[in-house]
Amino acid sequence: MSGKAGPGINRRTFLKALGAAGIAASAGGAILLPGNLLVMPHSEGFLVVDMGKCMGCGTCMTTCSLTHHGKASLSLSRIQIEQNSFANWPDDITMSICRQCKDAPCVAACPVDANHVDTANGMVRSIDPDRCIGCMQCIAACPYLPKRLQWDPVQRKVQKCDLCVDTPYLNEKGGPGNTQACVKVCPVGAIAFIDKMPDQKSPHGYEVNLRGKGWEKNGGNREDLNSKS
Amino acid sequence: MDIKTRVSLCMVFFFLFISGNAQDCLAAVQGEAGRDVSFLFDTLSWLLFAAAFTGLLLGGFISRTDPYIDKDRVFRHDFSAKLSHWTHAGGCILLLVSAVGLGFFFLPRLVPGVSGAAWLMDLHFIGALFFVFGGFFWAANTIISPYRFTEHMPDGGSLIEGLTHYAHIFKLTKKRVRPTKYNGSERLAFVPIVLVAALLILTGFIKILPRMMDIPTALLGSTTWVHDALALFMLILFFFHVLLAAVVPWSWPLLKSMFTGHVPLKFAQDEHASWVEQLNKKDSTEEKP
Q: ipTM beyond 0.90?
């Protein structure tokens, strides 16, 4: 019952040749073309926060979830604030924002390129929810604690700060060079958008000082601490 | 040591050798900082393609034995049939268990963290290896011997035959059907099972393509949806297949034959009367070239 596939070759021989060639191509391709050798351009925008100024009101958190999801939910915010009543200022409040890392490990970890460098929007490290399969590999890859990516329990996907590129509930254009909702609503100006990667003098975060003349007028020393975000 | 055993051993050693080397090579470029979990779908995705081609290669190498009557029993399942069936079965169980665990559609995700997801994804990968191998091995056998496909396809009388078969089992009618190798319900189930399995493999391959190339988001999103829908359908088919082919007592001889290769002649005469007649007429134990 072994029919002819062509002149001088039967189906069995054809399958043997196809199988052997396919195995060789699969194995050879894997070894010679390893992939994932990404050249990751720097983000054209960064959020920084001065914890000396932050008073932990949570306005940025609710605004973040409002602009992205249309509802005020601390759990759906891409900014996370932790408060420790027993610590001294300014260590009593910690704010965690995605740092738009150089060579972002979360982007490299994504198996389906859902977490990607958004070349159309200032190289922001963004997650495409339509592609995300919810494997959480990017969360594991993020080297910071708390993780700068959040699990969205509603959509069962991962989300992260995209500098407001994808904000359907914001009546302004977001993204690098445009509006960032958290920057706009922070009542004390503790969050800022900058277009240059900040100095990083320690593994804990960027060195930030957003204190201005108003801070001095209120009796504070503009250089009394270097906040880390 | 016969040719089948030698080929099987060669393939096992080949897989072990290649996977060990490739794992080391890929770990060198994928071990980015902060990443402490790696998925087999990432590091060894090429093995899925190799499994497909291995199925074709092995299908080309192994000669099959047609059914024949051997005294008081009938030879029904040869080595290839058992290999194809059990790789499908094992793969399908791993795939469905891990798929349900990872959560699809409306079913809740059953893993709380990344290590659980990684473990289930790796389980899904291993299941996919078996399933893809079994699927392509079956396809190779079908290409070489198309009659094995056509004898399984339903015809105009399959629906009535299947209904009568079960009506008789449940004592709703005294009329008995005289099926060939596959009775009506088996023929009817064959089409959706083959279609769903083929589409699951196709959509599964599309889902791993982003590891190698940039594919449109719309294609990936719709493929994920279709893959999930087919998985749900496969879960239902699998449940009924196990129920009707393994749980109910009247199918136990067939289940046993999936290990031994033989069914009792009496069972074959009762349940597949036309098939036994065909075998008696053919009276041939030679394998097809």
A: no
